[in-house]
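Fill-in record for Type II secretion system F family protein.
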Amino acid sequence: MSATRSAVKPAAAARRPNPMSTFVWNGTDKRGKVMKGEQEAKNANALRAELRRQGITPRVVKAKGKPLFGAAGKTITPLEIAVFSRQLATMMKSGVPIVSSLEIVANGHKNQRMAKMLNTIRSDIESGSSLYEALSKHPVQFDELYRNLVKAGETAGVLETVLDTIATYKENIEALKGKIKKAMFYPAMVVAVALIVSAILLVFVVPQFETVFQSFGADLPAFTKLIIRMSDFMVAYWWMVLFAVVGAGVAFIMAKKRSVAFSRFLDRAILKLPVIGQIMHNSAIARFSRTLGVTFRAGVPLVEALDIVAGATGNSLYEDAVRNIRDDVSVGYSVNMSMKQVNIFPHMVVQMTAIGEEAGALDTMLFKVAEFYEQEVNNAVDALSSLLEPLIMVFLGVIVGGMVIAMYLPIFKLGAVVG
């Protein structure tokens, strides 16, 4: 028995594939032209043999060094996943096998973390896994929606078409997210800059004026006294203010991530804000419509599609509503009837959905709804930017200009007395 076991172990070890390493090389071709590049191989000798087979005389072949910082590569972004999906779909439509397609995309990727992940996926497929199974090992980069669409595409034999649809979907969703971030980021940055400038004035500039005022020996205006007191507090307790601001920011982020109740409260509160709230409503409807349209067109069963779509709306209020729709549809109700019951979707969306169901073109109607509301978001963000510009100028004028006026009031008063 022991002899049999010892015989099996070497055989199993022999079948186990050797890990591939990346090497950089340079050499000369038959014309004497210097060539260089990088390539994966089992070892340096195997790469030298491969280069000679290609007519290249290798001079240097060495393992590719890892950078001291950022060796793992930067974070994989959703846009990179969208580009990967488009590249894979294009090559598969051109007749390139999926394993070769993955190798080509991985070798051409600048993000080392992305390249490593694609090589892992390629290895899994070479070992007999489906693309769905290989992607399931990377749930952070490929969410449930992505994986289910790929599974549906593989089952129906239209994987390249589904990948192309996924790429378009992710590009549209990322563009929509970018618009929302733009609407939020600009005013937040202006407020942050105004507060930083105010803090600098209070800590470094106002004390200089205070020294000058003390030499006057005259009574200062109430507004100037208020600014001086604020300056004295900032100079004495700036560390406490900084700690409070940073602590509040960290506490807010942690509460949003860990407290479901707090996260839900924020989702509902933001929908009630003027202008911003309407943008978030339209964004959630656009994401719901486009995601449901994509999953339905890919052949995912409607109840399962609604379950996936719920988490893609980006707001807990809409997530709860979509789960209620899923429950109603699972017992036989139509989608448009279920949408009426949750009482959160506009009348136009419900009617377009009803028309799509009656005509057997639900996905087409949902895409039209998504396009309409995405355009509404674009228009609202542009209008918000135009509205915010004068308001921000007024805000900066009141904050920074107010402090400047407070500092010069005593000087004006002294000039009037002297005059």
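KEY FINDING: The CA atoms of residues 411 and 417 lie 10 Å apart.
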